[in-house]
Fold each of these.
Amino acid sequence: GRKLYIVRTSEGDAYLHADVPPVPIQIGKKMKLDPKDWPYLSWRWRVVVPPEGGDERYKEKNDSGAAIYVVFNRGWPKFRRHVIKYVWSSADLPKGEVLKGHYDPNMYVVVLRNARSPLNRWFSEKVNVFQDYKRIFRKDPPEIIGVALMTDADDTNSRAVADYDDIVFWKE
């Protein structure tokens, strides 16, 4: 079968390339980080082909050209977690808007880029996951237990293509 996420290189820089059909496939990394010590997350991304008609406000159109997930531990059982999903939306949503996730009651979506953001151009992002968690969940965040990414086009039955690079947690 065709690989949906592959490592590509350009001018000596390796990055993760996602070219996905209408199938939701997430890729991630388990970790243990204290967000008080590592509050910042930065990365570079670009959307080449956005999911046609994607709009995170509606469950039936809930596709994002690019998304980075930060997963926080809330204890046992495993499904007791909180998630912040940072998105490059295909819709014309205001940057900074926070939406409730459709498939997970413990997930919130934060719009960083939208339909007005130029396609096929790299953008650098830096977010304060500690402050974002406090603002969204109204308490100090627990341990970070994972980070993931997903380019998806299943709800719109379309195709999406995006690239990700330099995903790093920072102390300052």
Note: The chain has a mean pLDDT of 93.
Amino acid sequence: ELIREGIEVAVATVPPEEFDVAVVVRDDAGDPVRGAEIVRELEESDSVVAVVGMLLEDVLLSAGQARSTPIPLVSPTARSGDGAGEAVYTLEGADPAAAESIAEYAASRAFQKIA
């Protein structure tokens, strides 16, 4: 509930003329099969640009493997996204894939300094 509220508050701070975004809520109930179904359903929509959720590692793994497109998946609580495929990120614990992606982006933009 707190994570959903945090996402909604963050979205509300973005002026609609800058970025038109809507929050769609689905509950995987901690079930890897349901998590995979939800991701497959959401990736069918052209308007979905990312999926935030999958609180448990096994749900994140299942959801990542179920995708037919590399739609980004972000888990605020899973410790690792290893084995879930590309464009899978976790906010809890060390995430070498995210660090590598950020470093590649910074290098591609020729950033000299990152705070």
Note: The longest strand covers residues 73-75.
Amino acid sequence: MTPKSISFDSLVKHENDFTKLLMMETGLSMSSANGEVRKSIMWFRAHLRFSLPEITVRDDSTVKIITRYTPLGVTGIITPWNAPLLLAVGKILPALITGCPVIIKPSPFSPYTALKLVELGNKFLPPGVIQVLSGDEQLGPWMVSHKNIAKISFTSSTTVGKRIAEAAAPLMKRLTLELGGNDAAIILPDVDIPTAAMQVTMGFQRMPPLLSQSKTNCNSKVKAFYEDCVKRGFRFAFGDGNIDTAVRGYFCPLTIVDNPPDDSMIVSDEPFGPIVPVQPWEDEIKVIEPANNTSTGLGASVWTRDPATADRIARQMEAGNVGHKESGLGGEFGEMGLASYLHISVLGEQVVCATADAGDFK
């Protein structure tokens, strides 16, 4: 049994422990917390299959050319409060698979799952390969500016991501930034609306807890979206925009805004709360244009029974995981995601003179 399989079995064995930790530190329900743990296990299993071996580009009687990959070095990982286990697994595993030691700084609002994950990892890895730092917002800038940390992988807001990019620029540090998103779901008339509505709602669990629950923590930033909708006199398909009538506590009621204009705050910005706009459309071209008219492009979805229609519309969407517009830099997941933790080098050998030359594309 390999160390990879042993550590995977250990994660599976502690499924209930991680579920309880997520419930405690994020407020998720048991089903939502266990769903995140199970998805983390699924991601772990998938990553065990990934690798980027050397590629022989040319090999004949005169020359041999090889593309090879070498680790960048120590990777700093900074994760947000939401989905703390899932995002930690999605960043730690690619780094370790590619040979990069890891220092992870979880959010101070949800540090326990990362602490537990690193505790398990240290049972199977050499000392120092994976470490965790738990603390306030001062740790992030220190990690970004540290000359011995070769790469930063960060998930959180666009505002903070821009500051990280600025701080990393003098060192030409490698970055993967998964930042804000304001994802459009384009629903075509041939779908079953109740089914599509349920699936779209489940999709919001990508940033739990949003529409997966009827209410969530309502801070001043989220509250501003409700107040703006009420002030501008928008119609509500569900709820009334009045957060004062919600259950006592720091909660926001589930609210659906009916056909707000494209320039409204609820359409153009990311509320990160359980309030969403719904806009009718008739012309395919006209619905794609506003869907793409956003400063971020983290993701998007098309809902139809016709695969050809879905493909045609999807190819026109300016969205993708991480790297579109202000939604971030780089990419994550899959074998191509491994490349962001690696130097790509080319080795060329001329058979005639029997010498080797290496060029490093960094």
Note: The first helix runs from residue 3 to 13.
Amino acid sequence: MILRCIECGREYPINEVRYRCDCGDLLEVVHDIEKLKKRVSCRLFDERLAKREFPYNSGVWRYKELVSDIDSKFIISRPEGNTNLYRASKVEEYVGIEDIWLKLSLIHI
């Protein structure tokens, strides 16, 4: 896993604390896909969806291997993600649009 500039292609180690490339543009996380395929699968992520154990009860950390190669003891989580959607039928009537859904994220403030 490395950080790569989306503009100039310069690469940095993943463990280097960096927010932008030296050229000023954004960095993306680039995975070794073949190596990753040996460790994870869609099935693994699906199984974690129902987990209550930390950190996999988070909608973010459920995909831990895609986010960062970090030991779970260093993860801080509330847990975020997996917030329910609620049908807003009164809002639909008021604005004249069908199929409006709202996400109540106050719990994560």
Note: The longest strand covers residues 2-5.
